[in-house]
Amino acid sequence: MTEQENLKKEEPKLNVVPCLIIDLGTKFVRFGISSNNTPSTIVKTNHPNLHQKCTKPNEPALTFGRITNKEKIGTILSYARSTVKEQTIGESVMVIDTLFTPRNDRSYIAEYLFNTLHAKRIFFLRQPIVSLYQTRSDTGLVVHISTTISIVPIYKGRVLFQAINKQNFGSDQVMQYLMDLLEKQGNDLNDLGSDPLQVVSNLLKQFGSVSLDIMKEPLQKKKAIKINRKTTNTQETTVVKLTARNEFCECNEALFEPSRIGLNTPGLSDLIESSILKSPLLTREEIMKNIVLAGGFAETKGLPKRIQSDLEKRFTDFSISPEISESKITKNSEWIGANIVANKDLDIKDWISKEEWEKNPQQIIKEKCF
User: Fold this and answer.
1) Given its phi and psi angles, is residue 193 left (phi above 0), alpha (psi -120 to 50 degrees) or beta?
2) Distance (Å, rounded) from C-alpha 159 to C-alpha 133?
3) pTM for the whole thing?
4) DSSP E strands: which ranges in the chain?
5) What local confidence, expressed as pLDDT, does residue 101 receive?
């Protein structure tokens, strides 16, 4: 037997639990099979084809992590289950929800999964916990930037609730600010097609960046971006004019200076600093050593360097400097963390069985969930 075969034989067997993962977000739901690097399907929570039979089709399914339309949540869960061909995988369901999802909402989801979709066992995880888990550490600061901003310090697997910071502004406000800047430059956004917001959003993902210091950024020549789009019979070209400062960079400053969009609230770096300082003194340096960026907007070019630079200027008295995690920044960070849990570290006894849930729904969810 070769040395390689011996090493392979000695490797401990992982307790792999094949399951369906459902990541519930306010605007999107991601789902697929554990062990896959990315979700197989992403749907909008207000997708018209998904909810055409619902009695209140215009009401959101979720608002800031709370269920506002149970009928829609049921439709989403059923759709997620219908995409899975393997019956045995559908029997085990892992649900990722927000830090602020109430226990009553979890009970409703559990009831639907057990009684309607006939799941045999389920498990709930909070988004910040699994975002942190992808770094293989149980201590750090999770900075989630999407439609909202949330800063969540976690120490040895426990959320430090007293140090959480949350603001209900984010990508939507940045997008609106960008559109205002483009219009001031003389761009007619109606020329971008039937959905100018989507076009501008795609452009921001492609050309957007964050400056270390926008006031010191050297001005460039005025730019223009050509957009080719198809109409019914022809292909048209629209030109988006930009100033020397570049609106696709300038708009992101609203994250750090909300006063630019008329909000009297702390900016992103202020919120991070506040969360660290509100954490217990003995935990601060460990938390600072593992700052994890998550959420779709966290993928913006230059954002990690800007946060790193801002925090280094604010924490000069500490023996260490804040460190942004080197793990890949992605809107699917929760998915990566959940897969690590599902495929390596989750013991069978940690799952909630239907029998356990029927005995005492609220208590079992409290006892067995992160």
Assistant:
1) left
2) 13
3) 0.82
4) 20-24, 28-33, 41-44, 62-63, 66-67, 92-97, 121-126, 140-145, 149-155, 158-159, 165-167, 224-230, 235-241, 291-294, 352-353
5) 87
